[in-house]
Amino acid sequence: MGTVVEAANKDAANGNGSILNKNLTVVFVLGGPGSGKGTQCSNIVKHFGYTHLSAGDLLRAEIKSGSENGTMIQNMIKEGKIVPSEVTIKLLQRAMLENGNDKFLIDGFPRNEENRAAFEKVTGIEPTFVLFFDCPEEEMERRLLGRNQGREDDNIETIRKRFNVFLESSLPVINYYDAKLKVRKIDAARPVEEVFESVKAIFSPKNEKAD
Ligand SMILES: Nc1ncnc2c1ncn2[C@@H]1O[C@H](COP(=O)(O)OP(=O)(O)OP(=O)(O)O)[C@@H](O)[C@H]1O
Ligand SMILES: Nc1ccn([C@H]2C[C@H](O)[C@@H](COP(=O)(O)O)O2)c(=O)n1
Ligand SMILES: [Mg+2]
């Protein structure tokens, strides 16, 4: 594997395009495992016309596609570890290019400092803001154990590893953006509808679609 930048340049040279120089609005959606990122992103899409890209969903789709990286990704997800940025950024870039929208919710990314720095270097994109769903571990654990979507990482052993990775690697990224006044923190321990009321207040009401 080369560097992330080499991979992006190779893609562009192969005619796979680049998201460099496109005028995109990007909101990073962060929070611990089970904090409700995916649930709230679905609501935001319906009301505000964003495209939702979940890094975890893209990685799971890559496993299913039979890609050469599939086994490596599967093993890392089972261990709650973060997949190398080169792989995840390539998937995100491809999805953004294929989609054609100019407003993206990027859910579960950047998950560590390597993700953050590499994405900025490859795409030149700084998020407009960062939505942070703040939720206590006991509540997140309860939600994950009750999710029932057949995810291989929704077992107590992997959940504990994911919590540790969140504290050690993902929180520093949130702190990085907080220092730049980009973090919009939401109390995610409340019922879905109440959380969404707070989310709505953050996204400009004038952009809301009529029902
Ligand atoms: N505010 C809420 N109150 C109660 N349950 C919730 C709430 N938000 C989401 N859930 C439920 O909790 C589970 C996890 O939610 P979701 O998949 O949105 O979390 P996530 O942050 O995307 O998790 P992951 O990082 O593992 O992908 C789901 O079963 C969802 O229905
Ligand atoms: N930037 C990312 C995002 C996700 N992953 C891997 C590791 C996570 O535990 C798993 C599931 O993600 P989720 O659906 O909970 O957001 O996917 C990663 O390596 N890098
Ligand atoms: Mg999710």
UniProtKB/TrEMBL annotation:
Binding residues annotated for a ribonucleoside 5'-phosphate, in chain numbering: 60, 81-83, 108-111, 151, 162
Binding-site residues for CMP, renumbered to this chain: 115
Lineage: Eukaryota, Viridiplantae, Streptophyta, Embryophyta, Tracheophyta
Biological process, per Gene Ontology: 'de novo' pyrimidine nucleobase biosynthetic process; pyrimidine nucleotide biosynthetic process
Record remark: domains: Consists of three domains, a large central CORE domain and two small peripheral domains, NMPbind and LID, which undergo movements during catalysis. The LID domain closes over the site of phosphoryl transfer upon ATP binding. Assembling and dissambling the active center during each catalytic cycle provides an effective means to prevent ATP hydrolysis.
Matching PROSITE patterns: ADENYLATE_KINASE (PS00113)
This protein's name: UMP-CMP kinase
Cofactor: Mg(2+)
Similarity remark: Belongs to the adenylate kinase family. UMP-CMP kinase subfamily.
Record field: catalytic activity: UMP + ATP = UDP + ADP; CMP + ATP = CDP + ADP; dCMP + ATP = dCDP + ADP
Organism domain of life: Eukaryota
Protein location: Cytoplasm; Nucleus
